[in-house]
Amino acid sequence: MESLIAIATLAIIGYMVGSVKVINQGYEGLVERLGRYQRSLKPGLNFVVPMLDTVLVETTREQLLDIEPQSAITRDNVTITVNAVLYWKILDVQKAYYAIENLEDALKSLVLTTLRSEIGQMDLRETVSSRNKINQALLKELDHATEPWGVKVIRVEVQEIKLSATMERSLETERAAESERRAQISKTEGMVESIRRLSKALKEDKDNTAPILRYLLAQQYVESNFELGKSENSKILFMNPQNLTEAISEMIGNDQNEGGGR
C-alpha cells in the first residue's frame, strides 16, 4: 500500500514538474497538442499538459542574416558581385513557424531575388553611386513581402559592390580620359578669356601695342622652351630671345609705317 502511495506521489510530482514551462525574455513558445497548434506562450511561467503538449520555442529578438557575395547584372549588361546583410525579427511566432517551410532560407532567396531585380534596373554608374537608394528599395520590398510570414525587416545594407579586374581597368581609363577632357576644356576657356582681355587692352591703349606684344611673345617663348625641354629624346635649336624680340619689333614698326602711309 505504501509503495502505491509513493508511486502515485511521484507521478503527481512528475506531472506538476512536466506541466510547468518557463519561457525566457526575448523568446515565445508554441504549444502543439497532438500535432495541432493549440496556443502561444509568452515569456514567464506557463503551464502545459504533459505527454499531450509539445512546446516549440523561438526567439523574437533582432537577428542578422549575412548574404554571401552573389553575381548580378546591371541594366547596361555589366556583371558585378554584391553582398549584403539583413536585420530582421519575428513579430508573430505562429505565422513564422507555420506560414513558411524554412524561414531563413526563404529570407535569403527573397533578398537575392529583390537585390538582382533592383540592380537590373540601374546602370553601372548608378549602382555604384546609389547604394543608399538600393538599401531603401530593398527594405520597402522585403518588408512588404515578409509581412505574411510574421516577420519585420528592420534594415538592409549592401556592404560591397565589386567589379571584375577588366572592368576596373576600363573604368580607370575612362576616368583618366574624362579628367583630361575637363582639363583641356578649362585650358581652352582660359585662353579664350585671355584673348578677350588682350583684345580689349589693345583697343584701349593703341600706343602701347608693341610692348604688350613683346611681353606676350617672350612669355610664350619661355613656356614653349619649358615644355619642349621636358622631352628626353628631342634635340631642339632655340632662337636667341634678343633676335626674336628685334624681329617682332621690326614687324611692328613696318606695320605702323604702312598704316601711317595709308
From TrEMBL:
Q: Which UniProt keywords apply?
A: Membrane
Concerning SMART domains, the annotation shows: PHB
An annotated GO cellular component: plasma membrane
Q: Where in the cell is it found?
A: Membrane
Q: Which domain of life is it from?
A: Bacteria
PROSITE patterns per UniProt: BAND_7 (PS01270)
Broad class of where this protein is predominantly found = membrane
Q: Which residues form the Band domain?
A: 18-175
List the Pfam families hit by this protein, alphabetically: Band_7
**InterPro entries named in the record:** Band-7_stomatin-like (IPR043202), Band_7 (IPR001107), Band_7/SPFH_dom_sf (IPR036013), Band_7/stomatin-like_CS (IPR018080), Stomatin_HflK_fam (IPR001972)
The coiled-coil regions, if any, are: none
Family under the similarity heading: Belongs to the band 7/mec-2 family.
The name this protein carries in UniProt is Paraslipin
Q: Which organism is it from?
A: Oscillatoriales cyanobacterium SpSt-402
